[in-house]
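Q: Okay, next protein. This is CRAL-TRIO domain containing protein from Pristionchus fissidentatus. I've checked the sequence twice, so it should be correct. Can you predict the 3D structure?
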Amino acid sequence: QTYQSPVRIYKHPFEVVMAAYEMRFPTCPQIPIFVGSEITYEYKSDDGAVHVVDRKCELNFEVPYLLKKIASVEYVYFNQKNSVDWRKRTLLIEATNISFSSRIGIKENCMYYVHPENSEWTCFEQSASLDVKSFFGFEGTVEKIAVKQYGANLAKGKEILEFFIEEQLKKGTDHLIPYTVKHGEEEGSVGDSAIDMPKEVNGEEETPSVIMNRRESKLGKSDLLKSNQHTSFDDPDSKIESEYIKRFLGQLSQLEESRFCELKYGLQSHHKGKLPNDAHLLRFLRAREFDVPKAKEMLLTSLLWRKQHNVDQILHEWQRPSVVKQFFPGCWHHSDNEGRPLYLLRLGHLDMKGMLRSIGMQNVVKLCLSTCEEGLNRAEEATKSLGVPISCWSALLDLDGLSMRHLWRPGVQALLRIIEIVEAHYPETMGQVLVVRAPRVFPVLWTLISPFIDEKTRNKFVICGGENMTEELKKFLDDQNIPDFLDGPCLTDCGPGGHIPKSLYLPVDEQKEDDGLLSTMYTTTSFVKGCPLEAVINVASTGCVLTWDFDVLKSDCEFTVYHTPKMLDEIVHPHSPSLNPVEMVQNAISSVPAHKVHIDPSLVLGVDMTIVEKPHVFQEGDSMQGSHFCTKEGSYILQWKVPEATVNSATTFDFSIHKGKIMYYTETLDSADFRGSVASLESCRSSFSSMALVSSQPSTPASVPKQMKPE
């Protein structure tokens, strides 16, 4: 175990602090475990500038009675060496344990010195280490006791010293003449300090409180907490002050302060290159429960990632595509009741499929990164303007309009990838997530993504719904900041969202090349007349949701979904059509029976096979997304084939119209993953068979009914 304190500041001259410190010896009633001490060695230089004192200190730790009996000791002894240099105005304290030194190693170093920016202030730093080698099989117990006792005494140490300083002030000792360099001696680092002398007011000497107020007013002009140098890592020798931590980072325990100092000083010593500010360092520590090695590993990995992807420049160099400006329904919007920046996202109005296919996964990720980077900047600005630490932001998710089309697997995969990036590189940045107008399908989406969200982040989600939604929101947002789309008075800058026209989509080849997301999930294949493409999906339990998504790349196609109670082999037929020209001519001129399944020709419609999604014709260029709520067990057969009407209207030997090509994806959402939300799904299953109701075409073909329109 190790400990490293931040710099603690006493707003008193060094000599006054030293006089107060000496009041702790030979014993100190304010420190119950400090039984007493005796001087074992003392040295003073001839000029009086250096004074060294060795003391043997007797301590009475609170330990279990059994442990005391095993160790056969009543008290524990330490050696403390104090070396004061009045010329340099420093005190070095070195303490080591005498008792059980062969079994336990305890070392502590403390330093008092003059504040580098103000000669009338005194700084204090402290570091310690504990190494339990062996202790009669109670090593873990001894370690816990030592850490607990040490942590308790850390908080008490400053309190006791301030008590003795106050005692000095009551005596009128608010000044002590510092060591004077004698003629012929080498000058130390005393500087130009001018110690305040007591002044007489109306013939009476100032009281300690008046002296303190005068000194505070005088020294406030050079207060380092008002400078920005602490938020930068440009100075490799910069130190962290405890008051700065409280003001800019928040209230930390003594050990948390120690871990933060250990991480920062370690990175300053060994890492080359720019580091994040202190608030961001602290986020990584919190994400790893203040485990310094784990936090350091996580941080260094993130710094390498930032360099590889040039994240530091993303706000300056990346420009939002026009599709994002026009259709992305998200924006920053004032702050919540705790001063945290608030981000609005109307997720139900987001066309994730259109967004991915129009700007690509890389730009979607950059959109997320730019939002996170702006969130860091806004949190830092809020800290400065409000005067309290703001280390995270909040989000308001409006799920009005959320439907099964948002469960499009590539979109969900994109969302999971974004969550993975944010968890790894922007930890502890989410204050709370307010979810409003959640529909019945929300539990399904939550089931898919929640396992990938950190447990602490999951606990920050708050559902605000029902008739009292506005009143619920007032617990978290100011009345005047409630968005207009939630019947509030505040206008927002969010885009309208909505369906992105197919005319804005990237070419299919560019989509598949973009980060591999679509190419790894979609299958591109061809089919010919007389040899349709068929995919078998087996469903072992009712309540599942069968989903599909496809683009018609060439020619028109007819799409049908069949069901049979028989369990067929889960295959795709054919893997690649290989009909020769003679076979194609035969298929083209032959009469193919309607509703024929080629995977198992023995299946007869109306006997052992039914149609669960009626056949519909889609034109070249159409994009279709749909789903079916499975009320029966068995095999579901998705079939794509060349439409009969298209063939009959063309020349018999025009082979180009006898061959179709699609890019498709299918998935079954298992009812077991819904975690009790199947009832909600079934209650709105009528909407599961519907496709996106918006078409890029001027009008919908008459052959396509409302429940199954192409996007």
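A: Here is a summary of the prediction. Residues 352-386 form the longest helix (35 residues). The radius of gyration is 37 Å.
Q: Noted. On to the next one.
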